[in-house]
Amino acid sequence: MTAPTNFPESQQLNALAQEASALGYEIVDIAGFLDLVEAQARDQRIALSGVERGAGNIETASAEVQVAAADLGESVARTAEDVDKSAALMRSLGKQSVLVATWVQGLHERSGDISDTLRAVKTNNAQIASISMQVNTLAINAKIEAARAGEAGRGFAVVAEAINELSRKTKDAASQISTNIETLTDWIATLGVEAEDIAQSATTLVEHGAGTDSALGRMEHSVGVTRFQANRIDANTGKVRALIEEFTPAMHGIGQSIVATTQGIHQAHQRIDRLIDTSETLVQSSAALGGMTDDAPFVDYVRDRAVAIGAAFEQATAEGNFSLQALFDRNYIPIPGTNPQQMRTAYTKFLDRILPPLQEPALSFHPNVVFCAAVDVNGYLPTHNAKFSQPQGGDVVWNTAHCRNRRIFNDRVGLKAGRSNAPFLLQVYRRDMGGGDFRMMKDLSAPILVNGHHWGGLRLAYTF
To answer: Which member of 72, 159, 268, 456 lies 3.0 to 4.6 Å from 376 by CB, making a disulfide possible if both were Cys?
Structure first.
């Protein structure tokens, strides 16, 4: 916005300073928005990279599953063939087992018949033996009668002797037959007992054969179902792989788009940062020309406070209370167990004694003042205001907001405040209060010089 030309020069400068200050606010607000967008774009890129890796892993795994499914199908096919052959063999054996069992059962029944026959033979043989004894008795009596007849009975005696001999042989044969029959009877009895046991086993085998046949049928069915499912897996895996192959290029294209967008946002952010520098230069230049803004009282105050701190440092070193070398120590030692990380240097404890009386009164200078703290050229803030110097606890969000001493603020605002050699530097920035809470503030700083050496700067932050 351009001031009217009929305004006095001082009014034009004041208007220019006000517009420059307002411009800085708007630019910083946009920069903050770009910070969020850039962070989100980075997060999206990281997430997309994870998705791309996941898709690649899925594609690889899908290929492996497809190979495994094909192998499974072939294996199931071979198994099915083996099961079919085994089932056919088992069924054939089952039929043969049934025939054997039937034959054994018949043998058991026939062994009973043989036993009955042998008992009949034994009875008949006993009858033969009895008849033989009767014939032998008759033969003996005939021989006695032939002897009494004398010469006339001689021929009859010869016949009687032959009959006697025949009856004796018949008796011996009958006795031998009886012995053999007894032996055969015992053997048949034993065979009958064994046949009965085998018959029972054969009956069990027949029953089990039916169960085995059912089990084989179920096995054949299961193998068939498995083969069908394996073929389905193979087909579906191929479809999944094809879809992933179509999906991957699209994801890659989205990734490239996000990368390009992120780069564009980063470039825009860099340009915004340069605009912020330009707006700050406008404020500096208008102030140098005599332009007055609402910030003028704060400028005077922070410059006076910075000079007072530099003088206090010079006095302490001159009196030997502290060495100049220790005051410019840049060795930042981490304090264990702190989150956010806190640091200490050779001068930290010294500044804890000397800075509070010079910094704390600034909080009462104006209601809008939020803090007043000195930082070195690297943004290290050793001693903060008491309300921001609380002992750390376990909550990092709370720590971020309330434990801001002994920390390095090396962001753009913090570094520029510590390193600026200009009489003053007015910056607008979004202060991170922790937990995603940001507050728009002005950061006014003036350099702290010690014996002509630039130690850092005094930061005065206030809302507007």
So the answer is: 456
